[in-house]
Design goal:
Layout (H helix, E strand, L loop, with lengths): L5 H14 L4 H14 L3 H14 L4 H11 L2
Helix pairs in contact: 1-2, 2-3, 3-4
Amino acid sequence: YEKNNLQEAIKYFNRAIEADPSYVSAYLSLGRAYLNKGVNVKITKNRLNSIIARAPQTREVEELRRRLADL
């Protein structure tokens, strides 16, 4: 996804998660899109916590969790 298409990318990642809740890459990409979007940090943290809670537990998800702790 490109910066000017982040909102569209977020929609597609959410659809991918709905279609296949075990698709870890979609969760990670959704989290990265929110981080790259540069929205309010508190809102981003809340969204990422929600994403992490739904995501299958993998090393990549743990990395996202660590990045979130650094915000």
